Amino acid sequence: MPGFEDIFNDEEVRAYIHHSNEIMGAIGYTEHGLAHCKRTADICERILRKMGYDERTCELGKIAGYIHDIGNMINRQDHAQSGGLMAFTILKGHGFSPDETAKVSSAVSHHDERTAAMVNPIAAALIIADKSDVRRSRVRDKNPVLTDIHDRVNFAARKADLKILPKEKLIKLILVIDTEICAVMDYFEIFLDRMILCRKAASYLGCNFELIINDIKLL
User: Between 190 and 89, where is the model more confident?
Assistant: First the structure.
């Protein structure tokens, strides 16, 4: 049975991730390469595992997290849908069943906030995993952090910790922000839509969602 290692070791997939990251850099976006893909994959798997989903669903979630941004190789615009089509071809080529191919492709296709939807548990977990990857190392050029608010917000993040608490039916993102670089409300303003989406995704998984920045609960 094909699994995560088959996709992770696929040089074609790795090339798509590499080129997607280069393209994102060329148009001024933060890092979207192997680091982001691996982190999203691990968090997506952890969410599903903590929420009690079976081993195969957790593995499919890890796959979705790893390949979710390959559509950026085509264009940032509608990259989720492009990525879903690419995922369909890749998974089918590796011999995944039609059912599993559909689940992962659908999750990838619905992870972007403009067209996101909780179409299955993998999609819900992927949304939270993707949107919670806020860290200084994603900023490519440290010079514009004083002028570009998106870079400034990521650069200011000293710590990000996603807590999944199934017994309390709670998922919470705890951030420590350097307020000399970015005000807490700057983060909240820029990422409000993403955090509301995380709340909807958590609700789909049967949990509440909380955003805590510098010990202040904002959501």
Answer: 89
